[in-house]
Amino acid sequence: MKKLLLLACILISHKSFALELAKYPIELSSGQGTNVVIAPTTDKKQALVKVTGINHDIDGIVFLTDLKPHGSNNAYKYTYDGSERSLISVDDGYRCCSYTLYIPDTRDGTYLSKKEESNPAIVEDLKAQYEQQLAKGIQGELAKFNRDKHLGYQQKNISAANDEVNKQCGLKIKTNLNWESINDANLKEYAVGSFCAQVAKEMAYMCEDNQNFKSDIAQFNTIECTFTDELKLRKNGNTIIFKTTPKAPNQREFIKSYLLNL
């Protein structure tokens, strides 16, 4: 085991030392406390990038990024939370260049301006930080898919829909889903919680639209959801059995039609 760890460290070290970085870095600032340093490789295909001044896990971490197409522009891309992300986009416009920072889990980009002069000493310091963090496995941990975070977010979607039924219909209902049956690939690609919350959401909409509908669903206390490859609805006593799939179109209309015919 010790030999394997030593070999891994050697490989990591060789990979990082093999980086041929340009002499001068690109220093960027938002003007409001967010700063970015980019140390491109000499072939401009990759770069070490560090962001500071943000309240996020990536603050102060040096990532080895790849410069890849991003829409009509290019972006320095890295792996975070199990998927490739754009960290800094580069708009090679008429006056080249404008830069935008994309912080994970946020919607809007942060526009950055480039400093006129840059300090070449930053490059070696950035490389040293990268190697230290890489040896500790920091970037590797951030690259892994964070299942617990995604589960928490999706479960909140379902809870919010259940609460809305209580508010609009005066009915306490619980939407159940066996989360262990949802693999990481589906959890990364689809809003599983939103799909399973559709029945509760439609109940709330219909109660708000027609007060008489409250009596039609008063018999129910549970929605059992399965994320599968088909779309089906049926009732079993006080429970609605709901099978949902991202492949089926017009799911809201399907659910509404079923509820209207209870």
Strand content: 25-35%
Largest sheet, spatial ordering of strands = 1-2-3-4-5-6-7-8
Reported for the largest beta sheet, the result is:
8 strands, antiparallel, barrel
Q: What integer value in Å does the Rg equal?
A: 25 Å
Q: Into which percent range does the helicity of residues fall?
A: 25-40%
Distance between the termini: 63 Å
Strand tally is 12
Class based on secondary structure composition and strand pairing: alpha+beta
Uncertain spans, ≥5 residues at pLDDT below 50? 1-17
Question: What can you see in these coordinates?
Answer:
The protein is an alpha+beta fold and 262 residues long. It has two domains: 126 residues, no CATH class; 114 residues, no CATH class. Helices cover 38% and strands 28% of the residues. Strands 1-2-3-4-5-6-7-8 form an eight-stranded antiparallel beta barrel. Strands 9-10-12-11 form a four-stranded mixed β-sheet. The protein is elongated, with a radius of gyration of 25 Å.
Brief rundown of the structure:
The chain has helices at residues 2-17, 121-136, 138-143, 147-169, 184-189, 192-196, 198-209, 213-217, 251-260, and strands at residues 26-29, 35-40, 46-52, 62-70, 73-80, 83-91, 98-101, 110-114, 174-177, 222-227, 232-236, 239-244. It has 262 residues and is α+β, with helices and mostly antiparallel strands.
Strand and helix layout:
Blueprint lengths: L1 H16 L8 E4 L5 E6 L5 E7 L9 E9 L2 E8 L2 E9 L6 E4 L8 E5 L6 H16 L1 H6 L3 H23 L4 E4 L6 H6 L2 H5 L1 H12 L3 H5 L4 E6 L4 E5 L2 E6 L6 H10 L2
Parallel strand pairs: 9-10, 10-12
Antiparallel strand pairs: 1-2, 1-8, 2-3, 3-4, 4-5, 5-6, 6-7, 7-8, 11-12
Helix pairs in contact: 1-2, 4-7, 7-9
